[in-house]
């Protein structure tokens, strides 16, 4: 049974999400602020977090930064902040999705299911081990390594790298990559893909990897063979 954390200071939202999430058969733990989420995440090891950005004591963005130092667990932000800047910032910090309040609980459930489905799909790609130059990807364990050292990637970074690794040498537009990584058109913002590629490159460079993610100016990206 998948275990989900919901972190929101509004009781009515916690109550609504509890109804929908538990009706779908998921295990649920609720938090009214961000103070103890990190410690409980390490102890209980949930499968996904839903976090409000504007939380008392520890806000959602700070909580995300703490979590990303230790875990790549999927994170969905929910927030009354609806500007493009806030949405991009949340995703750049390592969030996997972003919903603006008020939102439809049914839409949130669809996005939760999409994340779990994509995780299963990349884990069951048909090729247990993918090799890209000096990097090895174990799709069953969702583990990326170079010379025996783990290359830690967030859920979205991993999904993008696996997709491109399965399609080495083939160019993709930003719109095609957005559709693959999020499963729907995410506000049509190619900056999200640019940021994902930048983060993947940085992490690979830290491990002195020879893997090359090529920019196709005015088009998109390609993973070179």
Kindly describe this structure:
With 225 residues, the protein is of the alpha/beta class. The protein has two domains: 3-120, 3-Layer(aba) Sandwich (Rossmann fold); 124-223, Arc Repressor Mutant, subunit A, CATH 1.10.10.10. It is built from eight helices and twelve strands. A five-stranded parallel beta sheet has the order 2-1-3-4-5, sandwiched between helices. The longest helix is centred in the middle third of the chain and has 19 residues, at 105-123. The radius of gyration is 18 Å and the shape is globular.
Roughly what percent helix? 40-55%
DSSP helical segment count:
8
Physical arrangement of strands within the biggest beta sheet: 2-1-3-4-5
In the CATH hierarchy, the architecture of the largest domain is: 3-Layer(aba) Sandwich
Which CATH first-tier class of the largest domain would you pick?
Alpha Beta
Record field, number of beta strands? 12
CATH superfamily of the largest domain: Response regulator
Radius of gyration: 18 Å
Mean pLDDT: 88
Proportion of residues in extended strands: 15-25%
Number of domains: 2
Globally, the shape reads globular
In terms of per-residue confidence, which ranges show pLDDT below 50 for 5 or more consecutive residues?
none
Structural class: alpha/beta
The major beta sheet can be summarized as: 5 strands, parallel
Which fold name fills CATH's third level, the topology of the largest domain? Rossmann fold
Cα(first) to Cα(last) distance is 39 Å
The ordered H/E elements are EHEHEHEHEHEEEEHEHHEE
